[in-house]
Amino acid sequence: MTQLHKRLSTEQISVILEQYQAHQMKSGEARLKLGLGKTRFFSLLKRYAKEKKDFKVTADTEHARNKISEDAEKHILEELKEEKKLIDNKNITINHYNYSAVKDVLKDKHKVTVSVPTIISRAKENGFYLPRPERKIHDRVVCTEFIGELVQHDSSHHLWSPYMKEKLYLITSLDDCSRLLLFADLFEDETSWAHIEALQGAITQYGCPLRYYADQHAIFRYVKDRDAERNWHNYSRFTDDIDPQWKQTLKMCGTEVIYALSPQAKGKIERPYRWLQDRIVRTAAKENLTTISELKEVLRKLKDDYNNVWVHSTTGEIPFVRFEKQLNSNLCLFRPLQSILPGVNPKDIFCLKWKRRTDGYRKVSLDSITFDLPEATPYHDIEIHITPDRKTGTAIFRFWQEKKFVGEKRVKISSLKMVRF
């Protein structure tokens, strides 16, 4: 469309704005006559109300809104150069410019607020632009109507910083309906306990969901023949006859587990992984991060931004806002943990569970360690619940027999060989 100053004179524009201010014309009609969008119309109206007699529309004023300061221009080019360094670095798995990330860095680091299109235009003008490959089409429809109806759970093994030698595991849990990240943290090893910690973090804060959705990793599911090396494998055990530790915890919380039949079926949680992976790696590379504690702090901030700032591309809403809206509309299937397991100590829920049998002297053995249990009954089954106490470097062993608590012991974690945290 022809520019406003070429279509209408300043006098004609003033008459239309005056009629709108005098309530002789609605905004829709005024915008139609001026050929302006809502934002541009009210920006022009504001300037007219301020200037009145000196009001004038020229080519310069039309483009004034696109002008940014020299300082902002300088910082944009600085950050685009940093992006190019990441792309050129063969040790980093980054092969494209992330202009949204540049926008965030400009705001947080330089206190410069500009739009993504402005950054892209400067990138194209200065040779910092690569066409993005055409993306495959995915089904991105939200399949659930209730928060807590389905929680997607997964982990990603990746070198999160080019300055670290070891890869780390990112474990996350995502509410399908709201797309809220219920849990996200980095771990040095992927163990059953790491995933149980993730359950504890999500369930303690939000409650027990109806279902959890995971892949068919051995930590989540026993599959006959595939898991032949497992301790419980024998000819009479079939797929799902044994519940791994993670699944036992969810069943105790009254939560069903369902499994993805293919990697493509986990697309909804894979996309947040890619988003987090890209942002964490970029930040780690630019700030020379070398420790897991530094990366955890970056992840903490990104999780907060993802949940409370960013509008999700599928739902069109900020995840936390959508979560609260569903909660206030009574569209929630999360159940408080205490309503399902009233009075139960969390150490007996979020733990590693083992079964042994007492001998005639009321003793049981696990991991070559013998425990005396004076209150236990000889020759009866004992259930052992084990949780770590990182501050003291010990593991807490709680013993149960026929639903009766019969003792608690502590063992140094360093002396355990079979039990891994």
Describe the structure.
The protein folds into four domains: about 5-65, no CATH class; about 70-125; about 150-330, Nucleotidyltransferase, domain 5 (2-Layer Sandwich), CATH 3.30.420.10; about 350-415, no CATH class. Helix content is about 40%, strand content about 15%. It has helices spanning about 5, 10-20, 25-35, 40-50, 60-65, 70-90, 100-110, 115-125, 190-205, 245-250, 265-285, 290-310, 320-330, 335-340, and strands spanning about 150-160, 170-175, 180-185, 210-215, 255-260, 350-355, 365, 370, 380-390, 395-400, 405-410. It has a five-stranded mixed β-sheet with strand order 3-2-1-4-5, with helices on both faces. A four-stranded antiparallel β-sheet has the order 6-9-10-11. Helix 6 packs across helix 7 (about 100-110) and helix 9 runs parallel beside helix 10 (about 245-250).
Please give a handful of descriptors for the protein shown.
single chain; 421 residues; alpha+beta; Nucleotidyltransferase, domain 5; 4 domains; five-stranded mixed sheet; four-stranded antiparallel sheet; 38% helix; 17% strand
